[in-house]
Design brief:
Elements (H helix, E strand, L loop, with lengths): L1 H16 L15 E3 L2 E2 L5 E2 L5 E3 L6 H54 L2 H8 L2 H25 L4 H12 L6 H7 L4 H26 L7 H25 L1 H29 L1 H6 L5 H19 L5 H12 L3 H11 L3 H28 L21
Helix pairs in contact: 1-2, 2-8, 2-9, 3-7, 4-5, 4-11, 5-13, 5-14, 6-7, 6-14, 7-8, 7-12, 8-9, 8-13, 11-12, 11-14, 13-14
């Protein structure tokens, strides 16, 4: 009897919520059986809390109207909470995006205001250094990713994310890392531009060979790099060449802006992606990324051993820091699984969290140049007879 009453009450409530139930007489006629029902915000039914009492479903309309009113109040409250949560996430997401754009543009301007074109090109005239840089970033780094994928079995979206990461070089964070490491900043800017240009050519050629069905639009990768990196850098270099005093005035300001922006990006980005990072812990994705970052830094650092400490640190940091924006452009346009983008975002956060302390450690090991003592001015003796 109780199960029959519950089924009848359930059907009557559904009809009432759809506007099809007929009104009954007295709500007191509907108090024989207690039916714990709750209308959730998603539109389903949840057993666990008594909102009204029903009987055989004949005179249940007044009681079920009370359920309907209660359900609407709960639905409104839950929807408001959900909207507030989404609004908060979107707000901090906008802050992370704005701080990232600000950092990239400000750091490019700061580097352009402090350097000349000849200073940037000079390290790239070292043919051996250029060949080693290209070898590290476009041959050895993909090989490291292949070895990691052979050792650590990853799910397909995580595997795709690591492959995209390995084929994208020329990160906009490199000059800032070089600055923290007290490395050769001119070489870092020149290397960043070189790796970006090669990446635009390299990804469309290589990715279709290793990932079936992938189509890469070079212009889709190039346009963001040109607008956000090369254009601000070129304008700043022009100002440095034509208005050196103005460049000297605004360069420290842009440097501070980029430092504040990357700090905000790290804090907000870590907060927004904390659940993604924790979600990858059991999948082997975090371990694969850590091994990838450490191995790629070691490869670049070892290949720069014959050069001075400033070039060596830039080689290591420039090889480990990948071009996340280029990888995301390709990933978002070719794969529907959001885990691919999650893998790339986590890689970007982990890269900064790991490489920033390494850069700071390298910077602390650089000895400040010993000041050259000025020659003492000889004191002329007074002429005899004076």
């Amino acid at each position: 009897m109780k199960q029959s009453a519950i089924r009848l009450a359930y059907r009557s409530m559904i009809k009432l919520l759809e506007g099809e139930a007929a009104a009954g007489t007295l709500p007191t006629h509907s108090s024989a059986t207690l039916l714990p029902i709750e209308r959730t915000w998603a539109g389903g039914l949840k057993v666990g809390k008594i909102d009204a009492m029903t009987s055989e479903g004949v005179n249940d309309a007044p009681a079920l109207k009370k359920v309907n009113r209660t359900c609407k109040r709960k639905a409104l409250f839950a929807c408001n909470k959900e909207e507030q949560l989404m609004t908060l996430i979107e707000f901090f997401g906008a802050i992370a995006k704005l701080s990232g754009l600000t950092f990239v543009v400000a750091s490019m301007v700061a580097m352009g205001l402090s350097l000349t074109m000849s200073q940037i090109i000079a390290p790239l005239r070292n043919v051996r250094l250029v060949i080693l840089s290209l070898l590290a970033n476009f041959v050895l780094v993909p090989l490291i990713a292949y070895v990691i994928l052979r050792v650590i079995p990853l799910a397909e979206p995580l595997r795709i994310g690591l492959i995209l990461l390995a084929t994208a070089a020329g990160a906009p964070f490199l000059p800032k890392l070089a600055q923290v490491a007290k490395g050769n900043i001119a070489f870092s800017v020149g290397l960043m531009v070189l790796l970006m240009v090669v990446t635009i050519i390299y990804m469309p050629l290589v990715l279709p060979l290793v990932l079936s069905g992938v189509a890469v639009d070079p212009w889709a990768i190039a346009q963001s790099l040109i607008v956000l990196m090369l254009l601000p850098l070129g304008i700043a270099l022009f100002i440095r060449a034509k208005l050196p005093e103005t460049a000297a005035t605004y360069q420290p300001v842009m440097n501070k802006v980029s430092s504040v922006a990357i700090l905000i990006l790290l804090v907000v980005g870590l907060s927004l992606n904390l659940s993604n990072i924790l979600g990858l812990i059991g999948s082997g994705g975090i371990l694969a990324l850590l091994l990838f970052l450490i191995a790629t830094f070691a490869i670049g650092f070892v290949l720069g051993l014959r050069d001075d400490a400033g070039v060596r640190s830039v080689m290591g940091l420039g090889t480990a820091q990948r071009n996340i924006s280029a990888a995301i452009v390709v990933g978002a346009s070719n794969f529907t699984d959001p885990t691919v983008i999650t893998m790339l975002l986590v890689a970007g956060i982990l890269g900064l969290l790991l490489l920033m302390p390494i850069a700071h450690l390298l910077g602390n090991r650089v000895k400040a140049p010993t000041p050259v003592a000025e020659p003492a001015t000889p004191v002329s003796e007074p002429a005899a007879g004076l």
